[in-house]
Design brief:
The complex is a heterodimer. Chain A is an all-alpha fold. Chain A has four helices and no strands. The longest helix of chain A is centred in the N-terminal third of the chain and has 28 residues. Chain B is an all-alpha fold. The chains are: A mainly alpha, B mainly alpha. Chains A and B meet through helix 1, helix 3 and helix 4 of A and helix 1, helix 2 and helix 3 of B.
């Protein structure tokens, strides 16, 4: 039983480390900002997730206790990572992409970083 | 065996922190810098959890929760400042 637990923890730790490293490496190597957004928001989150799973397994197998903190951190990270990625993408679109270069939005709708009137500065800037 | 895996994972996340730091320093746009800082927060959480596993105490998980919350709030504040020129309107 202990050996199986050790195997599980080691596999989760190794996968977590590799995913985290791939996320940061993608942040370094990819060549345009929207592509760079992909690597950390997915791979790094998955890496931290499997490190937290490893921590839960470690506490369950060797500490003899059920650990809730890791679950909390995991829920929080998995909920907030897409939100912050969306914010960063909006900031990038606002700063670096002109309004007429964007593909057309749905009818009766507009891009979220542009104001209601299609004004690039936003509805109430300052 | 777990000690080796812990060292390996800590090495991976520490290297990731360095790569993110490079992107913070170089990064051509401001959104790259925000993204790199956000990734640094994520890597720091992973390092803290790994260090907590190694030292066998619970206290590092509390600080990991704190850093996760502060990291999200600061990323949103930074992106919002770039987006709107103001954080709380």
């Amino acid at each position: 039983m202990d050996f199986a637990g050790e195997i599980l923890v080691v596999v989760a730790l190794t996968a977590g480390g590799i995913f985290g490293l791939v996320g940061s490496l993608g942040l370094l190597k990819l060549d345009n900002p929207m592509a760079r957004l992909h690597a950390p928001t997915k791979a790094s989150t998955l890496g931290v997730g499997s490190v937290l799973v490893a921590s839960v397994l470690y506490a369950a197998f060797f500490g003899g206790r059920a650990s809730v903190h890791e679950i909390l951190i995991m829920i929080f990270l998995f909920m907030t990572a897409p939100v912050s990625a969306n914010f960063i993408a909006k900031a990038h679109l606002h700063r670096h992409v002109k309004g007429q270069d964007l593909p057309p939005a749905e009818p009766d709708s507009h891009w979220a970083h542009v104001g209601d009137d299609g004004d690039e500065d936003g509805p109430e800037n300052g | 065996m777990i000690t080796f895996a812990l060292t390996f994972a800590m090495g991976c996340f520490a290297t990731g922190l360095l790569l993110c730091l490079f992107r913070v320093i170089r990064g051509p746009g401001i959104s790259d810098r925000i993204l790199a800082l956000d990734t640094m927060v994520v890597n720091a959480i992973a390092l803290l959890v790994l260090y907590g596993m190694r030292s066998g105490t619970q206290i590092y998980f509390e600080s990991a929760v704190l850093i996760a919350m502060l990291g999200f709030v600061s990323t949103v504040a930074y992106a919002r400042f770039v987006l709107r020129g103001n954080i709380i309107e």
